[in-house]
Amino acid sequence: MISKQNLWFLTLFSLILILGVYYVTMPKDLLSKVENIVEDKETKEVVEEVEEESMLVAMRVNLEEERQETITKLQKDLTKEELSTEEKNNIYEQLKYLNEIQGKEEKLEKQIKKELKLDCFVKQDNNNIETVCISNEHNEKKANEIMRLIQSKYENRINITIKFQKK
Q1: CB 146 within 8 A of CB 137
Q2: Domain-embedded: residue 90
Q3: 106: containing domain
Q4: How many domains does the chain have?
Q5: pLDDT at res. 130
Q6: What is the 3-state secondary structure (H, E, C) of the chain?
Q7: What are the residues facing 161 on neighbouring strands?
Q8: pLDDT score for 166
Q9: Is residue 21 part of a domain?
Q10: Is residue 49 a part of any domain in this protein?
């Protein structure tokens, strides 16, 4: 059976291979046209926007890597024979909790984007939620809207941190 890590490796390797073959077989005049487009002023604005969103992507990738390391460690611990059933149950609960948190974070990001039209990164750690939003507006009203939206998804009171990054 292919593990999740091997599947990711094969997927990324295949993508790199396909892009490499495409680059090698691409006509040279197409490459020069693409370079000319990059110099265009409108394209520079698009590149800046991509850089802003790439910050959020980088944050998501870092969080995913941390979680994947934790999950891998827990899975290795789960297969140890010297652990008691209770310890294995605790490890299983931790794995389950990590999956639930990841799902909640993704739902919150989508809901903030849908309802408030903001690109955000959401990270939950127990009862603390850290949110980084890309916006030119850095006011209390926006922050309160985000906090209310997040808090409405939880029964218990949680600590919510909102950070704004300029576009």
Answers
A1: no
A2: yes
A3: 40-165
A4: 1
A5: 93
A6: CCCHHHHHHHHHHHHHHHHHHHHHHCCHHHHHHHHHHHHCHHHHHHHHHHHHHHHHHHHHHHHHHHHHHHHHHHHHHHCCCCCCHHHHHHHHHHHHHHHHHHHHHHHHHHHHHHHHCCEEEEEEECCEEEEEEECCCCCHHHHHHHHHHHHCCCCCCCEEEEEEECC
A7: 130
A8: 79
A9: no
A10: yes
Q: Is residue 16 part of a domain?
A: no
Supply the pLDDT for residue 28.
62
Local confidence pLDDT in tens for the 167 residues of the chain: 678 888 888 888 888 888 777 777 766 665 555 556 656 545 555 545 555 567 888 888 888 999 899 988 988 888 888 888 898 889 888 988 988 999 999 999 999 999 988 889 999 988 899 999 888 877 888 889 999 999 998 888 899 999 988 76
pLDDT computed for residue 123 by the predictor: 93
Q: Which strands sit side by side in the sheet containing 128-134, from one edge to the other?
A: 119-125, 128-134, 159-165
Cα within 13 Å of Cα(140), Cβ side: 0
CATH number at residue 159: 1.10.287.4300
Residues in a beta bridge with 63: none
